[in-house]
Amino acid sequence: MTRKEAREILTELTKGDSLLRHARSVELVMESYAKKLNEDVDEWAIAGMLHDADYEQYPEKHPHMIVEILRKKGEEKIAHAISAHYTKWNVPYETLLDKALLACDEITGFIIACSHVRPDKINGLTAKSVIKKLKQKSFAASVERDEVRKGAELFEVELPEHINFIIGVLTEHKEELGLT
Q: Which residues form the HD domain (predicted)?
């Protein structure tokens, strides 16, 4: 599957700007991690792009609809990673891609939420301030802190290092993502 084909699936299923921006941000983070780890860049980017593609239209069936679409297209590895991007679904983490998607999803959204409440947005945001906000349960309350922690553990990255990596990626794309 090409990224163009994946983007067509995304835009067919997802119309809301916020969810499209989330998909793009996780796509960029996954792409950057793939480059860093010498993994399949397109595969990782597509997993990031499509992980929530069915959420808007089929929230009660998420992620089963997008997983089914991907399996029909022969994209089993991406489909499995998407089926495992939430620990409470009890899907085994078999590949580094599975672990990376789990590790990047919630924390990327949380970092963006942190940047939106700052006068300088993403500029100057640090892992220390993100971790401080993680401890504040009322801030971005829908973000499951346990998922953030478990994701970093499974992906075998230290949380501050992971957060700084993501901040770096988001900073590179701050204009596109509306973080200026």
A: 20-92
Question: What are the structure tokens assigned to 132, written together?
Answer: 């401080």
Residue pLDDT, tens place only, 61-109: 999 999 999 999 999 999 999 999 999 999 999 999 999 999 999 999 9
Number of compact structural domains in the chain: 1
CATH number for 103: 1.10.3210
Give the burial string for 11-44 (b: 16+ CB within 10 Å, else e). Answer: eebbeeeebbbbbbbbbbbbbbbbeeeebeeebb
- Residue 74 lies in domain: 3-177
Q: What single letter denotes the amino acid at residue 172?
A: E
Nearest to 108 by CA among 173, 180, 63: 173
pLDDT digits (tens, 9 = 90+) for 112-130: 999 999 999 999 999 999 9
pLDDT at residue 78, as a whole number: 98
